[in-house]
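[Q] Does anyone have a clean structure-token version of this?
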Amino acid sequence: MKQAVFLSFGKELYLNRPLEKSSEQIKSFIEKNPSYKSILIFYEELLKLQEAIKPSLNVPRVHVKKDVLNLQAREGFSLLNKEDFIVDIPSSVNLFESICRTGKNANEKMKENIQFIEEAILTKKLDPGELLQKHYDISYIDRVAGEYRIDKAILNFLIHMSIQPSIHANVENVKEFVDLKNWLRGYCPICGSLPQISTLKGEGQRYFLCSFCGFEWHSERLKCPFCENRDHNKLHYFYEENKKVYRVDLCDNCKHYIKTIDSRELNYDPDLYLEDITTIHLDILADKQGYKRPAPTPWGI
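[A] Here you go.
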């Protein structure tokens, strides 16, 4: 049996949180807001499937060249491109198939699109291994979605959740090389992707969670991560009514937004993936005000 490669350096990734801890928070969220029950139950099922494949996950260490490290520190380059991530295809394909089986019970739209995918695979028109290997190839994903009538958001969601354990294992293997002291940028130091969500900790320091690889890094609080706007007259936010822990940061310069969780207002250590799911209504409010989210979540927002 293949042995998993998980090297621990520094801060834990959100995916590597104990499943029991996430399940407890999911139960609490459902009790507080039953309207999110179906999506949270589905998410918990996905976490269980991802947990189940970890023992068979085989992700060797990614080699990071010295000149890349120097460029990162000097020029602000990310350590890896998305195509550099090593994906354990056999484990990811197994996970993809399991997620598809589970996803057909999530909702009718998901079921319909998964049936399109399964039909393409059954007739050997689509190779799931190639699909997961080319996760970074936008033109390829667009072609597959169009040719087989698959909703692109759902297709990207299924791909991302299937390769996520491999992606996080890659991050575990390279995060020791990141120079966080000099990294205050609005994009991920490991893969260069935009942040999915942010959180305030300690004395108000701001941290971003990468929308692709799940790495967390510290950055400037009063700056738009997307266009680097620092003009306070063009930076503002709104709170969820009576819940200052959840806020939406808006930039009038680029018309983008990002949700921020003030963890100082919580009596628990938040799982930002869960917090993102249970604040979808804030995405809807921001969209109605004319602001866009440049880094969609795997849920297609």
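[Q] Thanks! Anything notable?
[A] Residues 152-174 form the longest helix (23 residues).
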